[in-house]
Every structure is written in C-alpha cells, then in structure tokens.
Design the sequence.
C-alpha cells in the first residue's frame, strides 16, 4: 500500500498536468459544471505545481531553492494584501487568499512549463555535444 501511494505521488509530482486533468474530471463528475470543476482543479493542484517546480530546479541545477520559492510566495501574499487593502480599504481574507492561491497556480504552472522546456533542451544539447 505504501509503495502504491509513493508511486502515485511520484507521478503527480513529476507530471502535475495529469493531476490537474484528473481533479478536473472528478470535479466535473461531482459538480456537473465545467467552470466550477476548473476552479476546483486550480485550487487543489497548485501545491503539485509548487512541489514540481522545486524538484525540477533540483534536477536541473542540483541545488534546492525551496527557501526562495517560499520567500517569493510570501512576497506575493504581502503584495496581494497591500493591493487589496488599497483598493477595498478593508482586507477580506477569503478573497485575498483565493486570489493569491490562483495567482500562484498561474505563476508556478508557467514556471513548470518553462523549466520543463529548459530541462529538455538542456539535456538534448548536453547529450548531443558530449560525444
């Protein structure tokens, strides 16, 4: 049982897009609403992209920058609170957190795609010129 869970988590961290699709499909079955299922998928798979970006960085550059990822997320959260306070003149924590979390999804999804392409191209170039 432990090895099955470990294998599933490994696949989800290595390929978070499959996790997003899986959560979207389950959400669509449960809610019968594509828009709501998409929002559920974004909310629940953000953590997969954050962890995947960390592991891609470790794989490509052999260094852990998890502290930097957390620091960037804290700065983004502070910016969201500040902007929300300036615009609304009060902080509605639920709206701030939802916006912050969805922004993190977009950010880490794009970073995941960019690092994946960089890693593939870097490996191809390294392999092509190593012989």
Sequence:
């Amino acid at each position: 049982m432990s090895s099955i869970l470990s294998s599933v988590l490994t696949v989800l961290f290595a390929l978070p897009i499959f996790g997003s699709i899986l959560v979207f499909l389950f959400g669509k079955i449960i809610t019968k609403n594509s828009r709501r299922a998409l929002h559920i998928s974004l909310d629940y798979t953000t953590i997969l992209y954050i962890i995947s970006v960390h592991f891609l960085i470790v794989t490509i550059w052999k260094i852990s920058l998890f502290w930097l990822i957390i620091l960037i997320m804290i700065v983004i959260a502070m910016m969201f609170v500040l902007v929300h306070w300036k615009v609304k003149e009060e902080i509605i924590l639920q709206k701030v957190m939802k916006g912050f979390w969805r922004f993190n999804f977009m950010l880490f999804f794009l970073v995941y795609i960019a690092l994946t392409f960089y890693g593939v191209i870097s490996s191809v170039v390294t392999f092509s010129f190593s012989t």
About this structure: The chain has five helices and no strands. Helices lie at 2-14, 16-31, 34-61, 66-88, 93-129.
